[in-house]
Design a protein that fits this description.
The chain is α/β, with parallel strands linked by helices. The protein folds into 2 domains: 55-193, 3-Layer(aba) Sandwich (Rossmann fold); 208-333, Nitrogenase molybdenum iron protein domain (Rossmann fold, 3-Layer(aba) Sandwich), CATH 3.40.50. The chain has 13 helices and 15 strands. The strands form 5 sheets. The protein has a 5-stranded parallel beta sheet with strand order 7-6-5-8-9, sandwiched between helices. Strand 1 and strand 2 (34-35) form a beta hairpin. It is globular. The protein starts with 23 loop residues before the first strand and ends in a 7-residue tail after the last helix.
């Protein structure tokens, strides 16, 4: 998915010169003719930069938001969206976040101090806490798609972000930058992240192996990531092969037999928001029926990554890419220090 092009507004201003010239007035001879003195030409009127509004901004659902002013009160309905807002310089206008927002600041402390408000859950949040904050922009996600529709019905400005790969994450940053009046900051931030992505991709070009990866997002039932997800994109860019990249669902429910038969070389387990190690520990995983035959288990190639990083489609997906590169290719990028 190509990065959304930023529309440049080119202002052409032309000054209008008003010139008044007197006419010679004939008078009877022998009186001398009287010539009117031309009035001085006024200075050109100063150039005025026209307002950029209204601006139209499409979101990841195809909805086009029309803005007539930059938002001053923003509510974020997911941790990833909060990361995007702060990363592009719009953080000072954020008045509400979810209970699960932990980055780039300790928002729990802010909320307790009365400097920020919580709207509660990020999945299917209630409308009332959002409306109470009187936002002029709500940045929603797939988990709050129903709330987004209700809020639009009430007349609120809503953008829904739902990136499926790293390009999508960067696009979201540019979109939010444009919507909040932080175009320049967003472009600079995206440029920096792109440099880091290129560094990983360039390093992977020297890899001689492509390890097979199993990424577990739940264990009862087993769930993983398929094609069309940002996790799958990260695995590929980091020089690995997602064992469920050909699944028909983006987040498929999979069987233990399927995992065993795919025989992944590496297993990745995230910490989850509000859940204390849903998968247990490495000994628990090794003891799963039939799993001792899997290469990742036999070779001790099981890793834990913070779910706040790997499972949230915000700017830290680039951190996730760098972590995955270390997990898959320590010979190129250095060893990864496990998050567990």
């Amino acid at each position: 998915m190509a990065v959304i092009a930023i529309i440049a507004v080119i202002i052409v201003a032309s000054g209008i010169f008003l010139y008044y010239q007197g006419q010679s007035a004939p008078t009877p001879s022998p009186s001398p003719s009287l010539t009117a003195t031309p009035t001085a030409s006024p200075n050109p009127s100063p150039t005025q930069t026209p307002s950029p509004f209204p601006i139209s901004i499409p979101d990841d659902t195809g909805y086009v938001l029309n803005l007539t002013a930059y938002p001053q009160r923003i509510v974020s309905l997911s941790p990833a969206n909060t990361q995007v807002l702060f990363h592009v310089g719009a953080g000072s206008n954020v008045v509400g976040v979810t209970d699960y927002d932990h980055y780039p600041y300790n928002f729990t402390a802010w909320i307790e101090a009365g400097n920020m408000s919580s709207i509660g859950n990020y999945y299917q949040p209630a409308i009332e806490p959002i409306v109470t904050l009187n936002p002029d922009l709500v940045v929603a996600s797939l988990g709050s798609i129903d709330a987004a529709g209700q809020l639009r019905g009430l007349g609120y400005n809503v953008l829904v972000l739902n990136p499926t790969n790293l390009d999508g994450v960067l696009n979201n940053m540019l979109t939010v930058g444009k919507a909040t009046g932080h175009d320049a900051e967003a472009q600079a931030a995206v440029a920096g992240l792109r440099q880091r992505i290129v560094a990983v991709v360039s390093g992977v070009a020297n890899a001689t192996t492509r390890p097979k990866v199993y990424h577990e997002i739940w264990s009862d039932p087993y769930m993983s990531c398929g094609n069309g997800t940002f996790v799958n994109d990260v695995i590929k860019l980091a020089g690995g092969q997602n064992i469920f990249e050909n699944a028909t669902d983006a987040y498929p429910v999979v069987s233990a037999e399927a995992i065993i038969s795919q025989n992944p070389d590496v297993m990745v387990f995230p910490t989850q928001m509000g859940v204390d190690s849903f998968w247990g520990d490495y000994s628990t995983v090794s003891a799963r029926d039939g799993w001792s035959s899997i290469n990742a288990v036999k070779n001790g190639k099981m890793f834990t990554v913070s779910g706040d990083i790997i499972d949230e489609p915000g700017p830290r997906q680039v951190d996730s890419l760098e972590i995955m590169a270390k997990i898959l290719h320590p010979e190129i990028f250095g060893a990864y220090t496990d998050a567990k």
